[in-house]
Amino acid sequence: MGNEAAAAAAEAEHAKEIIHYLAQDVAPGVTIHMQTMYMTWISMIILILLFIFASKNAKLIPSGLQNVMEFFVEFIEGQVSGSLGEKGRKAMLSFFVSLFMFILVSNELGMLPQVGVHWTSPTNDINTCFALSLTVAIGVYVVGVATNGISHFKHFISPSAAFLPLHLLDEFTKPLTMALRLFGNILAGEILLIVLYQLAPWIVPELWVMFSLFIGFLQAFIFTMLSLGSFEKIYVHH
Fold first, then answer.
1. Which of 2, 99, 177, 178 is at 20 to 30 A from 131, Cα to Cα?
2. Domain-by-domain residue ranges, the chain?
3. pLDDT at 11 over 60
4. pLDDT digits (tens, 9 = 90+) for 132-188
5. Cα–Cα distances in Å, from 120 out to 27, 80, 95, 116, 175?
6. How many CB atoms lie within 10 A of CB 20?
7. Nearest CA to 86 among 238, 237, 235?
8. From residue 194, how far is each of 77, 80, 150, 198 by CA, in Å?
């Protein structure tokens, strides 16, 4: 697999592709973007290590990495509590902290210097973004039925059955727009960074990196807040 990835990377370079997904045909009709897989694994490893080292020898008055990680956790906790209430916070905090932190780390991974490794964001691949939005969409049904039973679906005919087509359309379009928003912003940022390095390799790209780091945080926050909105029908509207 390593030789195949190297060959795919060389082919991508020769083809002048800006973003290299390293597509591998693993079965008839089944293609895996190995670059996305590699970067996803790296994002997960980074996230696991961050939480391990932040919680190791935790202190009552946090400092260093513990302080940074607690800031993010408390930040998301405040958003979850404000949107879902205490019951929702207890049930869903771990999910939303994991979702936000994974997207944040994934978004920022593509901003690393391209030294020895072709760093990209897993979220520059539409497949990753769709997977995240579908996880949220399916999670709403699973948690909704587990929490409220069959009455979870009554929002489809609220305030009247005439609104059923609109609610069904919303259920389809919301995951689509969430995925496209995240994908478009991250991919555009990486492409522009590559172009800037080619046109003006000094100063300008560094300034764009700083701006892109903020955009990465902002997009992770927006995706998380939109996901929170989907869960409100479970904990607020019942």
1. 2
2. 58-235
3. no
4. 999 999 999 999 999 999 988 888 888 888 888 988 998 899 999 999 999 999 998
5. 25, 30, 24, 13, 23
6. 19
7. 235
8. 36, 36, 50, 6
What does the block give as tokens for 148?
Answer: 């409220």
Separation between Cα atoms, residue 151 and residue 238, nearest integer Å: 9
Q: Evaluate whether 34 touches 24 at the Cβ level (below 8 Å).
A: yes
Distance CA 95, CA 91 (A): 8
Convert the pLDDT of each residue in 16-70 to its tens digit. Answer: 567 888 889 888 888 999 999 999 999 999 999 999 999 988 888 888 899 999 9
CA distances from 177 to 83, 169, 223 (A): 21, 12, 10
Residue with tokens 């990835």: 5
Q: How far is CA 162 from CA 166, 171, 213, in A?
A: 8, 16, 44
Please tell me the distance from the alpha carbon of residue 127 to that of residue 180, in angstroms, as a whole number: 10
- Dump the DSSP string for the chain: -HHHHHHHHHHHHHTT-SS---EEEEETTEEEEHHHHHHHHHHHHHHHHHHHHHHTT--SS--HHHHHHHHHHHHHHHHHHHHHHHHHHHHHHHHHHHHHHHHHHHHHHTTS--SSS----GGGSHHHHHHHHHHHHHHHHHHHHHHHGGGGGGGGGSS-GGGHHHHHHHHHHHHHHHHHHHHHHHHHHHHHHHHHHHH--SSHHHHHHHHHHHHHHHHHHHHHHHHHHHHHHHHT--
Two tokens at 79?
């958003």
The residue among 141, 143, 225, 211 whose CA lies nearest residue 181 is 225
Q: How far apart are CA 128 and CA 133, in angstroms?
A: 9
